[in-house]
Design goal:
135 residues, five-stranded mixed β-sheet, 4 helices
Length: 135
């Protein structure tokens, strides 16, 4: 079983798993529970498969959703992952710019007006043309 996050050197690799229409979010082998729990909280379903060797862990966008809703769930997860410091990759055909901006706005609105500015810039949308810096 291949792991795209291990192969790409990213923290989260979002892609459509052929030949299905399932949207996967792979994390590196041995990913921290904090990352896995964040993906859970962002609406992705955790899946595991135990083998004679390692236990494989990945996430999927819920399969009962429409195609547009699947893209929105995958895209809306990105700003929170970026703000948490993770490197994320998503292909353009799964990226929904409106859902991304909506998620960024939601994050901004959750901060109390009494909170001091975080000093963190608004996360830029991920781009395949300009890969994110590796840690």
């Amino acid at each position: 079983m291949a792991n795209r996050a291990d192969d790409a050197g990213t923290d989260v690799e979002i892609y459509r798993r052929p030949p299905t229409d399932t949207i996967h979010a792979d994390t590196p082998t041995g990913a921290p529970e904090q990352l896995l729990a964040l993906l859970d909280a962002l609406g992705l379903e955790r899946k595991t498969e135990a083998t004679a060797g390692p236990v494989y862990v990945w996430h999927e966008v819920p399969d009962h959703l429409s195609e547009d809703e699947k893209k929105k769930v995958a895209t809306r997860a990105i700003p929170s992952l970026l703000l948490a410091g993770y490197v994320v990759d998503i292909p353009e055909d799964l990226f929904d710019p409106a859902a991304y901006q909506e998620a960024v706005t939601d994050i901004r609105n959750r901060r109390s007006p009494a909170d001091p500015p975080s000093g963190r810039p608004t996360p830029s949308p991920p781009s395949r043309a300009a890969p994110a810096a590796r840690r």
